[in-house]
């Protein structure tokens, strides 16, 4: 839990750097990543040599981020729609963060989906564990496989729920899973 909280606090401190990130394709290629566009369902898959794979649904607005400027993608800033992130812990030991206007989802190595729409960020864990918090809060929750949380701009507590199979399937289907 302490590791997840440290990751979250580091992500909060780095929020200013997110907005100066290079466009996703340029940063991906600079980091040795490949970009593939898939027709059905329409999505973009970015594979990086350091064990990060990002699947973004058509129309997702996001930037890949290299916070420590070492030429490797280590975070993603998502503004709308959904992404599925898969991080290989052995190849990417420093973890990976997804930031949205409502939440920060941080991991060491796992697979999870993040969806931003209508002022709410929804996070679903497919494999591993993910810590989720609001950017301005030190309070976080940790999700396990099959669990999700919906984070709005408010200040109420974050409630972890086991997502119904239909809800999980609908989000993952948008990402070709």
Fold and architecture overview:
- There is one protein chain.
- The protein is an alpha+beta fold.
- The chain has one domain (about 1-175): Jelly Rolls, CATH 2.60.120.
- It has helices at about 1-15, 15-20, 25-30, 165-175, and strands at about 35-40, 45-50, 50-55, 60-65, 75-85, 95-100, 105, 110-115, 120-125, 130-135, 140-145, 145-150, 160.
- Strand 8 and strand 9 (about 120-125) form a beta hairpin.
- The longest helix is centred in the N-terminal third of the chain and has 12 residues, at about 1-15.
- Mean pLDDT is about 80; it is low at about 1-25.
Layout: helices, strands, pairs:
Elements: H1 2-13, H2 15-18, H3 24-30, E1 34-38, E2 43-48, E3 52-57, E4 61-65, E5 75-87, E6 96-99, E7 104-107, E8 111-117, E9 120-127, E10 130-133, E11 140-143, E12 147-152, E13 161-162, H4 165-174
Parallel strand pairs: 5-6
Antiparallel strand pairs: 1-2, 2-3, 3-5, 4-5, 5-8, 6-7, 7-10, 8-9, 9-12, 10-11, 12-13
